[in-house]
């Protein structure tokens, strides 16, 4: 295996790892906090409603937007590390 192939494999491995971590966070917030753990979070008040309802209605959207910006920032950093950036 050549040096270029190893570099490509390392790049894509890091990319897939980042995607899987982002998906895990998204699933935990959307399904975990908003649906599965909603009864356990019902006693915590946030903005006039319980925390489980807040995650189902607003929190998962906010976390998803944060994940988008985090992914873009981290991929730009990863691209620069592997010499495949566009700038």
From TrEMBL:
Q: Which domain of life is it from?
A: Bacteria
Q: Does the keyword Transmembrane helix apply?
A: yes
Q: Among its keywords, does the record have Ion transport?
A: no
Q: Which UniProt keywords apply?
A: Membrane, Transmembrane, Transmembrane helix
* Membrane-crossing residue ranges in chain numbering: 18-41, 53-73
Q: Domain named Sodium symporter small subunit: which ranges?
A: 9-85
InterPro entries assigned: Na_symporter_ssu
Q: Which NCBIfam families match?
A: Na_symport_sm
Q: What is this protein called?
A: Membrane protein
